[in-house]
Design brief:
It is built from 8 helices and 15 strands. It is of the alpha+beta class and 286 residues long. The protein folds into 2 domains: 2-154, Fructose-1,6-Bisphosphatase, subunit A, domain 1 (Fructose-1,6-Bisphosphatase, Chain A, domain 1, 2-Layer Sandwich); 164-280, D-Maltodextrin-Binding Protein, domain 2 (3-Layer(aba) Sandwich). A 7-stranded mixed beta sheet has the order 3-4-5-6-7-8-9. A 6-stranded mixed beta sheet has the order 11-10-12-15-13-14, with helices on both faces. Helix 1 packs antiparallel against helix 2 (43-56). It is globular, with a radius of gyration of 18 Å. The termini are far apart.
């Protein structure tokens, strides 16, 4: 059953990506507006949503889509459902639709959640031309969006140990706490550097490919949380509620907002300790 759903997700994001690539070649036809929360929604989001939901209908599994607000109340409900972000990295896509070097990534993202726990994810990374597909305990596969049958499998453990002071961190400026944590960790030399590309699924792929080492986002939405499985199945540790009660991804019940830290397993304990000290210790500005 699970494998069948993963294949369906893979097919859905691939078809949506192919459709988006066609539309992106005609940027003058792409419209965009701001939603109530000030985030952008493009006509591309809506087109991709149609493609994905059409593919998933008939599977016997319900879905929750970022672009269908009437479905959001089901987040955290029991049972099995798909979580859909038709275009993860919308703002990046809007500004850099012609970008193809893989630095700034965007594309369709679909996750599979069972009784509140993330089980699988498929992300079509348009600028890299690859589909990143991960399933709990089965590793990560990279498949070309094109018709090529070539599949690249990334192992379930990192090949080298990490040194925290040499780690690069990707973070999201979602709150003062995140911003100050990134500053303090960098300023004190706990990590090597901290910066942001944009698009959480893209950041997860960058970790899996070895470009950076840490992700921090303290208000991650439900569909984006699914993308952490890309990094986990490439050998990273995923901790929810890192400043409160650190909880592994497989023990976390998905919510509308999810505080998350992704890092190499061998630096996790030290990094969690330092972050808590920075937030809770006397004399700190965080």
């Amino acid at each position: 059953m699970m494998d069948r759903h993963v294949m369906l997700m893979h097919r859905a994001v691939r078809k949506a990506a192919v459709r988006l690539v066609t539309l992106i070649e005609k940027p003058e036809m792409v419209t965009h507006v701001r939603k109530a929360d000030r985030s952008w929604v493009l006509s591309l989001d809506l087109e991709a949503n149609q493609v994905i939901t059409r593919e998933l209908r008939g599977s016997g599994v319900s879905f929750i889509s970022e672009e269908e607000g009437d479905t959001h109340s089901s987040i955290g409900a029991p049972g099995t459902f798909f979580l859909i972000d038709p275009l993860d990295g919308t703002s990046v896509c809007r500004r850099f639709m012609s970008e193809r070097n893989g630095q700034l990534g965007f594309g369709p993202l679909v996750g599979l959640v069972d009784d509140g726990v993330v089980k699988a994810v498929a992300f079509a990374h348009i600028s890299r031309g690859l589909i990143f597909c991960a399933q709990v305990g089965k590793g990560l596969t990279l498949t070309p969006i094109s018709d090529s049958a070539e599949v690249i499998r990334i192992g379930s453990s990192r090949s080298q140990s990490a040194v925290l002071s040499e780690c690069l961190m990707l973070f999201h400026i979602g709150s003062l706490t995140e911003t100050m944590l990134a500053y303090e960790l960098r300023h004190r030399g706990v990590i090597d550097n901290a910066y942001r590309f944009g698009g959480f699924a893209n950041d997860s792929c960058r970790l899996a490919l070895g470009y950076e080492d840490i992700q921090l986002q303290l208000s991650l939405c439900a569909w984006d949380l699914c993308a952490t499985l890309i990094a986990q199945e490439a050998g990273f540790a995923v901790w929810l509620d890192p400043l409160g009660t650190p909880t592994k991804l497989e023990d976390w019940k998905i919510k509308e907002n999810n505080p998350v830290l992704v890092c190499p397993p061998d630096v996790a304990e030290h990094l969690l300790e330092v972050m808590r000290e920075l937030v809770n210790g006397e004399g700190h500005s965080v």
